[in-house]
Structures are given as structure tokens and as C-alpha cells.
From TrEMBL:
Annotated residues for binding of phosphoenolpyruvate: 345, 381, 510-511, 521
Required cofactor names: Mg(2+)
Phosphotransferase system enzyme I N-terminal domain segment(s): 41-155
Source lineage: Bacteria, Pseudomonadati, Pseudomonadota, Alphaproteobacteria, Acetobacterales
Name of this chain's protein: Phosphoenolpyruvate-protein phosphotransferase
Biased amino acid composition, Polar residues: 1-11
Amino acid sequence: MKTTDGMSSGVSGAVPAEGRGRRARAADRGTRVLAEYRLEGDATAHGVAIGPTAMAVEGPAPDIDEAARADDPAHEQARLTEAIERSIRQVERLRDRLALLPEDSKLEIGSLLEVYRRMLGPSRLQRGIRQRIAQDGLLAEAAVRQEAEALAQAMLGGPGRPAPAGEDAAAAQRRAGEFREIGRRLVRNLGQMPFRSFNALPVGAVLVTEQLRPSDAALIDPSRIVAVVTEEGGSTDHTAIMLRALGIPAVLAVHGLMARVRDGATIVVDGSAGTVVIDPGEDTLAAARRGVADYARERQALGRLRRLPAKLSSGEKLQLQANLELPAELPLIAQSGASGIGLLRTEFLFINAQTMPDEDGQEAVYTEVIAAMAGDTTTIRVVDWGGEKQSEALTRAGLADAGDNLNPALGVRGLRLLLRHPAILETQFAAILRASAAGPVRVMLPMVTSAHEIREAREIYHRVARRLRRRGVKLGDTLPPLGIMAETPAAAIMGDALAQEAEFLAIGTNDLTMYTLAVDRASAEVASLYHPLHPAVLRLIQTVTEAALRQYRPISVCGEIAGDPRVVPLLIGLGLRSFSMTASAVPRVKRVVRALSFEDCRRLAHRVMQVSGVDEVTALIDAFAAGE
Ligand SMILES: C=C(OP(=O)(O)O)C(=O)O
């Protein structure tokens, strides 16, 4: 996110005829010929747009006296209730507006509004705020601000917790942003302060603002606003996700923007390159017009892809599935063209819970997800707790031992934790088995290192099934397949033995990279050493893939690299056919694979497996992606 000082390609260099004419006329009239001014920020949402800027500014945040004590806590609680109700009405109104949006934006934004709606319900946030009013005697505004900030900080790695890195950091930032956003909304509603209006923005304008909240983004009408540029924010926050969903080209975190831009100035926004050009010269404008046309064509093509099968040009069929972290993502998955869920992370059931989720509650959630897949398989991973993932419910129940470990990622986590406390596993197995009446399911065990662990878990699985049958629950003759995550070097190296015990395998490249390279994925300190394309990791992927194929076991990849269109050809060349990824990656991966032949992928994999450095691997896959 650096800021480059102004340059003037519009004044120097080759100038097209149209540009020469315009400038000459301007000079004739004595108008100042403006040099274009280029700034850089986070490339947030693809696409190029040109338009007049429309500045949207909000009044200042209210002053809050954090030290003041409430004379009447009951009155503060009542004010809070009113502000919550008002906020709920606003979120509902935002939801009503969804009908006006294009299908895919509707879904992404709907998911976020659903999160907001839940936070405004009987949530941990609300409980915390009420407690601060009751116990500390705070004014409602101070209680809201303090509680929202405390929860946001906890997401980012509170006391005794490591700050998340990589993808986890981005997700944590988003969660933190959700708490802050709801906090700000409540505070404004407590003070009955107005919100910014987007109704009066001119059609075809580029919205320029210091900061855009996700709920503001939900108010943007993509048929009026052609691009968004902000001084604050970043490409992984919720606003960014929403702008991507709306298909509005966007560059966020453009330092120095507000000081440079003026209302009505022409601006070119390149959301793919992360650049904005204020008062562009004719060369820049001509290039931008080409970019606008290319972007429109690309969107149309991706939309058409959703309905096309995922197969190589040489005919081999692939399976592209989605990873799911929250049920709210379900509509996105349906839209993405994914054929089922390759990894349902069940940690969300535990993360904000004060008590352990019970069998009925879990069953209801799994049933909702499985039913939404309408016949496509849902792979449910039993809770992968410990390491960088913390749960208040498990800690309160005295079940999370991570605190005793100097090295939580190597301690009592994943399946180890579940086998030490089989009641958690029994409840979860029972809920999944009951929910399996709603459609095809697979059950997956995390963090496996030995065949013995799988056998132990399978015994529990069958015991739970017997108990359910005794209770009169109807289960089919064969239970849903029980498989494993291959995410430790031990699991990959012992692939043959493990594949004899497990009915399927899914390679978790996020953890596999961490354990293979001895690099904590949650530590910013060593983030530069974290390389999923390290040849050591690739060799383990190859080893376990070949082992699974020898044992006729289905194998997939569900780590982040499964959604990287540059890497998927290599994985195909290594023998993989099934990939589970974030829903939004499915169409792009599909586009790439449909143009590939298996023979090309195999040759790429052969070349990659000869080299010994990450840089060489990266150069080879980049050259392949560039068609070299
Ligand atoms: C998918 C994986 O699991 P998680 O990221 O949930 O730990 C992985 O480790 O690659």
C-alpha cells in the first residue's frame, strides 16, 4: 500500500489524436491542463472503471465519556434495548434492499447481514454490553464501545493467544470488523445520529470516501456507482468482500486519497492493479476504456461457467467443492456451482458458545446444511480444536488443554483432544448420524497421526450408531463414510496404512505446510517461511495421493491451495481430482481446469517434482499459467 507521487503520462509521451485535440482546445481556452495523479492502494475488487468522483462523508463519531458512571443503570439498559431494536430495523431494511441487487451480490451481502442480525440478537456481544452496564455502571455508549472492542481484540489474538497469520488473519480481521461495525451502529443509534446517505450520488459516479463500512457497502446501488475508492480499510475486510460480491471495481487503503481528490474530478480506478488515477491523461483514459470492456466480458464468461461441468479438456472429470465455515455461506455455495461441501469446519458451533453445543442443536445445524446441498455430499469435520483455535465453551467445560502446552499446535488438539474427551465426539457423531437422514454425508477426523487413532474413533462411531438405533433412530445399513484429514507429515508418510483404516482422505495443506516446515501458521514472525509450494510439502502431497489411489480411497485437497488456479494444474498432475475451496474460487478454478489437458498437467507435475526450491516451483507454475 504505497503512495506514489504524481506522474504525467497525459502530458508527455505519445498522445492519441483524440487526446491532442482535447488538450489543444483546452489550452486555446486558457484552461489549465491537469497532470494526472496516480495513487496506489489495495487491489480489492477486479475491474476497471472511469467516472466523476462523488465524495461521501459522514459526520464525526460521537464523543463518549468512558469514565462517566450511569446514574440509572436500568435506564441505560432500556436505552440499549431501544438502540438494538432500531439497529435490527435498519439491518432488516438493508435486507429488504437485497431484492434489488444482482443474484450473487445478494447472497454474499445477505450472509453478512445475517451475521449482523445474529449479533444483535441474544449474542455474546449483547450479554457483554449488558454486563458492563450492570457491573461497571457504564453509560450504554461506553459499554458498547468497550465490549465491541474487547471482542474485536480477542479475535485478533487476545492475551495469551497468538495473533493469527495468513488466511486466518484475514478471517480474524473480518470478525473483528463485524464487532466494531455493530458497535458503531449501536453507538450512533444510542445518540440518534444520522447515517450517511447514498441516495443522492449521481449515476456513473466513482464513490470516494475515507472509510466505507460493510453496511454502507450494502446500500450502494451497483447500477449507479461504477467504482469505490477509500482511504482506509483493506482488501480482506468485509467491505472488500461485499464490493467483490457487488462486482464493483474497488481500491481500498489508498493513503493520501482524501487530500488529493476533489468532488467531480475524473478518476480511473483499476481494482485489479490497485491503482487510481485522478485527472487521467488521454493515454490512461484510452487504456482504461479497453479495461472496462475486458472486465464486462470476463464477468459474463464466469457467470456462464457456473452451469458447465468441471472437467479437463482431455475429458477427465473433476470435483470442485466448497469449504464452509458458517451456515450463512450456504447461498454462496449454491451460486458458486460447487458440487457439495468438501470441508464443513464445525468450529463455529463452539467458537462463540459459552456452553458446549448439544446434540439437538448440532443436529439442526447439520440438517440445514445437508438439506441445502440438495443431494450433493457434505463432508463434516468433527471439531478441530486446540492450536491457534480457541473455544470459550471448551475452556469453560475444562476440556481444552491447550493452555498447558508450550506448543499448542503440537499439543492436545484435533482428534487427540476428542479421544481424551470422547463425550464431545459422541455428541457430534450422534448429531451428524441423525442429520444424515437429510442427504449424503461423510464424517472427517482432524489431525490424525496414526492408524490406531482412526480405529479408536471408529469404535466410538459404531458405538454411537448402535446407541441411536436402540433409541429408534433409523440409520441406513451402511453408515456415512468415516475419513481423515491428511494434514500431518505422519499421516502423509503412512498414507497406505491410514488409507486402509479410513474410507476417504482430504489433504489439509494449511496444517501440512505448518507441520512439514516447522512454521507456525498463526505467527506473523515466521509468515515469510510458510510455503505450501515448498518441495517438501509437495512430496508429501504426492506420497499420500499415491497411497490413497493404491488403496482405492477417494482423496481430495481442502487446504487454501485448492482454490488457487495457478496451483490446481500441478495438483491434477500429481493425481488429484477433487478440490474443496472457498466458494468464490470455484468459478475461476473451473475456468482454468476446463482449458487444461491431463497430459499438460502431468508434464508440469513431472517438472515441478524435479526442482528443490520454492522459487523454482513458483516460476514453473507461473510459466505454465502464462501458457509458456
Ligand atoms: C483445511 C485445513 O484445515 P484448517 O485450515 O481448518 O485447519 C488445512 O489444514 O489445510
